[in-house]
Amino acid sequence: LLFPVSNLCGKCRPRDTDLLQPSLNFLYWSLHQTTPCSQQRAVAVLLSSVPLLELLQKVLECTWLQSPPSKAAYLSPEDALLCSGWLLVASLLLYQHRYNTEVHQTISLDLTEVLNAVIFRKKKPILLLVSIMQFLRAVLQQNFSSSLLVIIGQNTAQGATQPQPSSLQDAALHPLAMQQVFSLVVSLQNLLVHKDLLLSPAVVACLETLVEYLSVKNQDVALHVASQPWHRFLLFTLLNGGQKSFLQPEVLRLVTLFLRYQSSNIISQKEISQILQEAAEANLAELPEATSRALHLFLCQV
């Protein structure tokens, strides 16, 4: 089925939402709900479809088109298609890298536009933000080196000519710039304050991947970002609600991140002891799976 569905997608236009939405969802789940052996073949089939990749390029570019924010409680068909497009491309990036699959057509994206979609948001639906962050994580995990993706943007263009004397750190973080990094971190912090059940895990995961990327590129910058005083205020904001326990998956993952980069000004020995005490008193068998995983990572880090 992958052959006819991918070929059908390639014959569509981005505005053919009624046909493209279920088709892209089928392709996405075909990648995820299959055996590793079949998964490798599925990736090869999709990446060999030049019309499909060209269609995905056009779909993603529709993200930057201005449209009035919907006041409805559900996604518009256009926004739903964008979500499917971003999630499918993120998956293709992940699995192409895993299996080193041959690429027959690249996708070009402006990095500044992608970052601005998260930084400025402009009342984008939460699911669309989550989808874009999933894509951003996949790109960061591969250090912007995927053979499927061509990154364009102002910082990339400057790096190809001559280095700017005022920005040695920008050169080290290429194709990101320091200003973009700090704007993205602040935006992620602000998104966490909303305490949205769908948004929060995606935001924490994106922050984790960003700091890991920075640590590979420039350890000093990673430590500087992880030790920002605002993080401590953010932690206590997350704890100031109906559930004040540290045993929340997002809180545990943030604490683990700060411990990994030795941010003693963010997390103190007192808070670490409090988490250990709460864990000792909790019924571990009744903890949600996400909390159990986060607690396991926290204990390993300690």
Automatic annotation (TrEMBL):
InterPro entries: Immune_Signaling-Apoptosis_Reg. GO terms for biological process: meiosis I. Signal peptide: none annotated. PANTHER family: BCL2 INTERACTING MEDIATOR OF CELL DEATH (PTHR12044), MEIOTIC DOUBLE-STRANDED BREAK FORMATION PROTEIN 1 (PTHR12044:SF14). This is MEI1 protein. It comes from Nyctiprogne leucopyga. The gene is Mei1.
